[in-house]
Amino acid sequence: MKNCDRRQWVGLWGGLSAGLLLGAVPARAVAQVALQAPAAPRLSATRLVISVEQRPALAYLPLTVAQRLGYFGAEGLDVEVRDMTEPGSALRAVQSQTAHMVCGSFTQMLSASRVRAFLLQSRTPQIVVGVSRKALPQYREVADLAGRRIGVQAGHSTGRAVVRRVLEQGGLDLSRVELVPQPNPFAAVQAFRNGAIDAISFADPVITQLELLGELRVVADTRTLRGSTEVFGGPMPSVCLGAPIDFIAQFPRLCQAVSDAMVHALKWLQTAGVTDIIRVVPESHFQGDRALYLAAFERMRESWTPDGLMPSEGPLIALRAMAMGDDAALPEPQELQRSYTNDFARRSKARFRA
Questions:
Q1: Which of 31, 36, 339, 353 is most buried as measured by Cβ atoms within 10 A of its Cβ?
Q2: CB 67 within 8 A of CB 97
């Protein structure tokens, strides 16, 4: 890592340290002290960087809600959500100390060294496996996929894990199909519609778009708790907020503030209507099709957890799913307890009665 990056990280931590050590000092005074510190002349005591990949994606809606409704600010935080482009880059930003926290998949955090999840946002993978009504009009069972091409999202293992589990349950070996990586949602839709792939294992809004066009038949749907249980045997933790273990230990009050803001957002999502979403979500997130985004939102609503808590069986289910994907490194089962903490979410749940 470059020296300038290291100085930036030291500055970020320096500013945070100043605020937390001063405790109950008023926010304005804390900011003034932090601004006077040589290590971070431009940073306030509450500044925080959260890295995320493809922020407009529906999977990260709770993070967007917390920022847009001012829930981070209400907790005394100045949060920058830094959108990354390459697969795995959000997690690498935390590991390289250019971001404080990461918003990403729990399975990524499981495979990472010294990163712990502390707030669960979605309790299902939000992936749907479906077949083309045009390519497979007589589809009856998983065995009918033998010799077929299945589109999956490039660089992300969850889609592969879900389809592999569906194939396994149907008695079809993975070697009997061809998984075809799709670089982006637009490419996935086009490949499905023009016959380049016969089936798909993907997230929304791709799936909802194909459903509304009448071109997709759903085989397995992990946007719902029931669907996730049918595929994985229980709730499968997906998107989480995580941070380095040392960071969590050094700044527990800051982590609690982030947890409070996020649980506040998750609770809001439980009852949010279409007009609420239109009011809160940036127009750019709709990707030019507001109706599609809202339709996908309704299909995914059950996936978001109401209180940020990790279910006790969730990490083991996630570990089993990782074994079905292409993740290179798998943690030992005994390490699962160290991969997450419910301490912050539990207090947030009590505060907001979530």
A1: 339
A2: no
CB neighbours of residue 191 within 10 Å: 18
**CB count, 10 Å around CB of 243?**
27
Using alpha carbons, select from 216, 232, 261, 220 the residue that is nearest to residue 62. 261
104: β partners? 240
287-323 per-position pLDDT tens digit: 999 999 999 999 999 999 999 999 999 999 998 888 7
Q: Could you tell me the CA-to-CA distances from 19 to 9, 15, 225 in Å, in that order?
A: 16, 7, 40
> 230 pairs with which residues across the strands?
none
Q: What is the b/e burial string over 94-114, where b = at least 16 CB atoms within 10 angstroms of the residue's CB?
A: bbebbbbbbbbbbbbbbbbee
Mean pLDDT of the chain: 87
**How far is 278 from 259, CA to CA, in rounded Å?**
24
Measured distance CA(38)–CA(14) in Å, rounded: 9
pTM of the predicted model as reported, rounded to 2 decimal places: 0.85
Closest CA to 130 of 50, 247, 64, 208: 208
Q: What is the DSSP letter of 200?
A: E
pLDDT at 325 over 90: no
C-alpha span between 220 and 129 (Å, rounded): 5
3-class SS of residue 83: strand
Quote the pLDDT of residue 16. 56
β-bridge pairing 101-105 and 239-244: antiparallel
